[in-house]
Design brief:
Layout (H helix, E strand, L loop, with lengths): L7 H4 L1 H15 L15 H11 L3 H30 L6 H14 L1 H10 L3 H14 L4 H12 L5
Helix pairs in contact: 2-3, 4-5, 4-7, 7-8
Length: about 160
């Protein structure tokens, strides 16, 4: 909910800082002086968000939420598939729905915060899930997505 007179950094929360960093890169200005608090993430994340700058802050914020919704769907599906395999369950539509819903309910408070604050944790989660999935069969790809996660947000 947007309150009258609310500043962009309060309305768009963390995404405002991400967007400001991407905007600074696209303008050729100092990445780390961008935003209200100053951009504190590795530069790769700002580079990845640069295509959103052309949309403007409001539309880019909506696009970011849509991207995060898709990331959430991908994370829940991949996690449900991995869980079904670990527990020896048949992975079909019903088991996928039950496992996805169960995982989402367990993390509901964190997911609400993730969406309200417009953070980047779902990007990190997808990278980690993919790394665990590929660790034994595709170790190079596991390393690539772990490297990507490190270059998006230091944890």
């Amino acid at each position: 909910m947007t309150l009258a007179g609310e500043t962009p950094d309060r309305q768009y929360r963390d995404f405002y800082e991400f967007f400001s960093g991407a905007e600074a890169l696209s303008r050729g200005t100092d990445l780390y002086a961008a935003g209200k608090l100053g951009y504190i993430y590795p530069p790769l994340f700002a580079v990845l968000l640069m295509p959103l700058v052309t949309l403007g802050l409001g539309s880019a914020g909506v696009a970011w939420l849509a991207i995060k919704a898709a990331l959430l769907r991908g994370c829940t599906w991949l996690s449900a598939q991995a869980s079904a395999a670990r527990f020896g369950l048949r992975f079909d539509g019903l088991s996928a729905a039950i496992l996805s819903l169960g995982g989402t309910l367990l993390l509901a408070d964190k997911l609400r915060s993730e969406m309200n604050m417009q953070q980047s944790n779902l990007v990190m989660l997808l990278c980690w899930i993919l790394a665990l999935r590929w660790l034994d069969r595709r170790p190079t790809w596991a390393g690539i997505v772990l490297g990507l996660s490190i270059n998006i947000k230091y944890v």
